[in-house]
Give the backbone structure.
Amino acid sequence: MKKSVILICLFFSVITLHAKAIQEDYAMSDEKARVSYAFGMLFASNLRTTPLEFDYNAFTEGFKAMIEDSELMLTQQEAVEIVETAMFNAMEKAAEANKLREEEFLAANSQRSEVHITPSGLQYEILAETDGEKPASNSVVRVNYEVTLTDGTPVDKSNDSEGAVFPLNMVIPGWTEGLMLMGKGSIFRLYVPSELAYGKEGVQNFIPPNSTLIFIVELLEISDPANKFDPEPEF
């Protein structure tokens, strides 16, 4: 009887130790999975705006082969050339699609009675107008502004309490032209076509290629280049 009790205790001890080992394996496995998932997230964060579709099986195979230093299907140079070509083709395709959307937007917007159009193609609305002084092409101005894409995506805005200061001869052409139409104290909405903004290239991860920019601008102050505001121009 005593021997049976000892055997039973030993049996349960072994079971307990085995269960603990299984739990530790699971814990280690969970941690490995968490770390792997985190690496995947961070790696993908740099690729999420890339205009490409991925074959995830092939992606994983290439990733694993590189990590494990196993036989690769491509040389490093071949891989670089493939990626560069794919990126170029994808960006060209995206730029063409954006151009069509831009043309449709500007054509529709130009039909609105409140929209004015300059010979360059700049479109604008007068939200509040004054007969105050207007800046020259080389003036330094202080403004409040906010800018979005045509779908409403925010791009940038000034600090409303201080405004933003910059010289008109150092910004995009559509911005310079638009501000020169405004009297001090005026508020305009500017529709700046890509040709007067950042063109086919756009600004990587910031402004897509062939993007019309929509600015709401309040002209606060005007200064000559020799008498710049403090702080120095920051735009």
Summary: Confidence is low (pLDDT under 50) at residues 1-18, 231-235.
